[in-house]
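2024-03-11 09:14:02 INFO worker-7 job=invfold-0412 stage=load source=structure_tokens
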């Protein structure tokens, strides 16, 4: 079992930047991937980005590609999400999630992830 805790959300003007961080604890030796998802009021939770823990391959939603960057620090067991050029459609609660164990399926779905944080709010003012 792993536990994740997010931080770094807040209020930013459109066009600005924020960096989210996620600390992972527990059975980190069994991590396969980490993901960031977001959920706006009245909407389903949607995929933002994911990273393979060992190899570092990254994947992004089309809506954030080129603006957001996911990274990880294996030594510190942290995952970051650098968000640049924030848009009015980006506000949501952002969640960090952990996939434990190898998985060949769709990492853009929230289903494979077992460890979820409590979320951090991102607000963008126009």
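2024-03-11 09:14:09 INFO worker-7 stage=emit residues=126
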């Amino acid at each position: 079992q792993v536990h994740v805790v997010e931080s770094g959300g807040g209020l930013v003007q459109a066009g600005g930047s924020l960096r989210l961080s996620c600390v992972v604890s527990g059975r980190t030796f069994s991590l396969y991937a980490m993901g960031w998802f977001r959920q706006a009021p009245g909407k389903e939770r949607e995929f933002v980005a994911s990273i393979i823990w060992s190899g570092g391959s990254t994947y992004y939603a089309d809506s954030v590609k080129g603006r957001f960057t996911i990274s990880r620090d294996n030594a510190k067991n942290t995952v970051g999400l650098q968000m640049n050029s924030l848009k009015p459609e980006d506000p949501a609660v952002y969640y960090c999630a952990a996939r434990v164990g190898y998985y060949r399926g769709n990492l853009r779905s929230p289903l494979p992830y077992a460890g979820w944080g409590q979320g951090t709010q991102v607000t963008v003012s126009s």
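2024-03-11 09:14:09 INFO worker-7 stage=report msg="The chain has no helices and eleven strands."
2024-03-11 09:14:10 INFO worker-7 job finished
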